[in-house]
Design goal:
38% helix, 18% strand, alpha/beta, homodimer
């Protein structure tokens, strides 16, 4: 690897439109909760997860393909028929809802704002992975096999700002890359890695201070999502975005066991 | 204080053009080396330091005011007459050059790229301070007296990326704000503060891993700048940018000793 860089905010990843990403592998991170939800759904057997920015885009998918499941919430509540002109969404955005019984073999269209924007910003990259703490090591193994020239860790952020939990996850990835990547780390990657190292003895406590975590922890129905999403290596699944925008469970490049 | 936020990159501070900064105090940080140089020059008695983005802008100042001193370098070397059509610059960009004997009572025009861009990005703010490790506590005292609604710590960065040493300095400021600011810290401010806390036992070693520091350390004439700029609280001077763009030593708001 020649460069490992972390982008902290939407303003940062908006600059990717001007960069040649053909030799770059991008890893998009939205710990609370878009990429944690995607990874959970794929690990539980979903065929594909299609992130879209708006409710209207999700409804357009349903109109074309009546068997897709819809996921999304506004203000912490699952989207209901009254908001959509008659369509009840099947899920909110809590990863705990995406059980094998509900998702196996299904295509899920999910509304997220920052997560979708971050995934789109990586258009043109050699590969785009969706990562979370839940599939950290699987992602690192895949990166080792892809052996990209340049690695870009794209934190989705909170609104227009940096999100602590995404930075921690980017740092955990940099930490796992180990000594081989040391000389390639940009300052941004050093910042993320050192944040993770300082927090790793109690990751949940550290991440719980973030704006996103505090918002979720204040909601009795959503508070357990924080602990759910802060667990490392629950799923040995690699989530890769295809050219069609859908995220699917990827074969580990180069084959072999895991 | 209601909010304390850190901007890590030029892409982040470019978004300030769309924000109402009237209730915001901005602190611009360019540890290696623009704000360290400005603070050193003011501490040694310079009347004003005027940051400009290009050599041509510095020459325009000299043409209008023949007594201004010019500072700047390209590729680590002081700017020479051959590059300017006949004008030798008086200083490079090393803060160690700005001795009292040379700067007392003088106005200095200095070319920097990121530092100037960051200062301009804060146009319209209630106040704009230039900070470095060298005047950390003086800056914090001034912030306490200004008691801004919103505090924005603007890291100048390296090229288009985050700079570790600027993030460490922003974190040191957040650390010194103490418990009173705790609830106001955005995720970005928590990230910066935790980076600083993890590094503070050997700040020089931590900052020496940054891209800027490595570039300076590789140059025998400039390597001592790194240790010079990583010292805390050498100067009890507050550096404030006026509406005219010039940075001057400010009276501590509200009077009193220091």
């Amino acid at each position: 690897m020649k460069t490992v860089e972390v982008l902290f905010t939407p303003a940062d990843f908006a600059t990717l439109a001007h960069r040649d990403l053909r030799e770059t592998v991008c890893v998009v991170i939205d710990v609370l909760r878009a990429t944690s939800t995607i990874v959970t759904a794929l690990a539980h057997g979903a065929d594909a997860v299609i992130p879209v920015p708006e409710i209207s885009a999700a409804l357009a998918w349903r109109a074309q393909q009546p068997d897709v499941l819809l996921a999304g919430e506004r203000d912490g509540l699952r989207i209901r028929a009254a908001q959509t002109g008659g369509v009840d969404f099947d899920f909110g955005n809590s990863p705990r809802e995406f059980t094998a019984a509900k998702v196996r073999g299904k295509t899920i269209v999910t509304t997220t704002t920052n997560g979708t924007r971050a995934l789109h910003a990586c258009d043109g990259a050699r590969a785009v992975l969706a990562a979370s703490f839940l599939n950290l090591t699987a992602t690192v193994v895949q990166l080792g096999r892809l052996a990209p020239e340049n690695l870009l860790l794209v934190c989705s952020g909170t609104g227009n700002q940096a999100a602590l939990e995404d930075t921690l996850c980017a740092g955990a990835l940099c930490h796992q890359l180990g000594h081989a990547a040391e000389a390639a780390l940009a300052d941004s990657a050093i910042i993320a890695r050192e944040i993770f190292r300082a927090a790793q003895s109690d990751l949940l406590a550290a991440a719980s201070r973030s704006a996103n975590a505090r918002r979720l922890l204040a909601n009795p129905d959503l508070r357990d999502d924080v602990a759910f999403c802060l667990r490392e290596d629950v799923f040995a699944v690699v989530a890769e975005q295809g050219r069609d925008g859908a995220v699917r469970a990827a074969q580990l490049s180069g084959g072999g066991g895991f």
